[in-house]
């Protein structure tokens, strides 16, 4: 398994978003902007995050309704820096161009709390990080976290079209100079080295094939990296991929409580953040909706089965999933499911988010 004010920043009625003030907009490259964000003090704890996670922003859509876009956090939770997401323009992309054209310091945006599982279990292990273009954002968060709070060594291979496309060039250089024994950056510029195809990537990655790998970028690059690493003998469970996706529905409105017909239905026991609760689970209601309707602060982002933010593990009982685009056979064998797509097959189900 491996895939973002002057008023109080409390969720608006019927939604689970919080307001974030933009304190700075940084032009990273001609087509990439970073938003430095600050939550209000009363919701700051909701934005504690793990390296590699993302925020889901609520943006005004072209038809007047809201649209959701997920952007990875480039900031590290271990350095004391403020929250920062980085957005690169996509040709024909509505969300990225709207953000780059309209948002400025002093504006506010609404966001769901951080989510995502593209994050290492330990900061003490040696890691291989591979990024392409704006895929550097979660990878940079992981690298900074390892260097600041762990003992691991980090090698980053960063692919771009040319030198002008390199996001965070100065920050990467400064990190390499500050940690010469632990942080190595390998730049891959298509203008000089050609496309990063599997055989050439394999040659470059030979010394690091035994490390756990985190890969984020365009699909063809991630496919090429995975093929190269598998050729070198890297097991699939040690290769983690983060996927970019656009959300088609409104993920922000909290679901209305779902009543079971004639008092029927089952129940689910959930362990989350060290607390255990048992709540009703009406038939036909996705697990996530049942949890949210009962007041359980379960994590989620897309609600479409296209990300891994709502992943949990079934301890007892059985469920079925209507859709799954991110969990592989190993994840399923270990009991992991997507809460937004899970329906009950037994009267009682026990799940955990730990």
Overview of the molecule:
This protein is an alpha/beta fold. It has 3 domains: 18-111, Translation factors (Elongation Factor Tu (Ef-tu), domain 3); 127-242, Rossmann fold (3-Layer(aba) Sandwich); 261-352, Beta-grasp domain (Ubiquitin-like (UB roll)). 20% of the residues lie in helices and 30% in strands. The chain has helices spanning 94-102, 136-149, 169-178, 190-193, 198-205, 219-231, 287-293, 329-333; strands spanning 18-29, 32-39, 54-60, 66-72, 83-88, 108-111, 127-132, 154-160, 183-189, 212-216, 239-242, 266-272, 275-281, 311-316, 319-321, 336-338, 342-344, 348-352. The strands form 4 sheets. It has a 6-stranded antiparallel sheet. A 5-stranded parallel sheet has the order 9-8-7-10-11, sandwiched between helices. A 5-stranded mixed sheet has the order 13-12-18-14-16. α3 (169-178) links the parallel β8 and β9. α5 packs across α6 (219-231). The radius of gyration is 21 Å and the shape is globular. The relative contact order is 0.13. Mean pLDDT is 88; it is low at 1-14.
């Amino acid at each position: 398994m491996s895939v973002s004010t002057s008023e109080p920043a409390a969720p608006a009625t019927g939604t689970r978003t919080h307001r974030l003030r933009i304190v700075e907009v940084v032009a990273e490259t001609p087509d990439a902007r970073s938003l430095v964000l600050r939550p209000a003090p009363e919701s700051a704890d909701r934005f504690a995050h793990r390296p590699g996670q993302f925020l889901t922003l609520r943006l005004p859509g072209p038809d007047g309704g809201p649209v959701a876009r997920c952007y990875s956090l480039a900031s590290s939770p271990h350095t004391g820096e403020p929250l920062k997401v980085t957005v690169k323009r996509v040709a024909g992309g509505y969300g990225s161009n709207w953000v780059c054209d309209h948002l400025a310091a002093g504006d506010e945006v609404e966001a769901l709390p951080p989510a995502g599982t593209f994050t290492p279990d330990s900061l003490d292990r040696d890691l291989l990080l591979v990024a392409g273009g704006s895929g550097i954002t979660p990878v940079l968060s992981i690298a900074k976290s390892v260097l600041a709070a762990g003992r691991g060594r980090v090698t980053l291979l960063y692919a771009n079209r040319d030198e002008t496309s390199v996001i965070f060039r100065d920050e990467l250089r400064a990190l390499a100079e500050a940690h010469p024994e632990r942080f190595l950056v390998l730049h891959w510029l298509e203008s000089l080295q050609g496309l990063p195809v599997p055989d050439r990537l394999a040659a470059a990655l030979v010394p690091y094939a035994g490390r756990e790998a985190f890969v984020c970028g365009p699909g063809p690059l991630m496919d090429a990296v995975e093929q190269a690493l598998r050729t070198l003998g890297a097991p699939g469970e040690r290769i983690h991929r983060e996927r970019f996706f656009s959300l088609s529905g409104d993920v922000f409105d909290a679901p209305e409580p779902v009543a079971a017909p004639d008092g029927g239905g089952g129940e689910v026991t959930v362990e989350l953040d060290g607390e255990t609760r048992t709540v009703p689970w009406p038939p036909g209601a996705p697990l996530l909706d049942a949890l949210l309707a009962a007041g359980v602060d379960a994590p989620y982002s897309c609600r479409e089965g296209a990300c891994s933010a709502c992943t949990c593990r079934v301890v007892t009982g059985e469920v079925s999933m209507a859709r799954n685009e991110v969990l592989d056979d190993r994840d399923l064998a270990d009991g992991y499911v997507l809460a937004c797509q899970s329906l009950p097959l037994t009267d009682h189900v026990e799940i955990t988010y730990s």
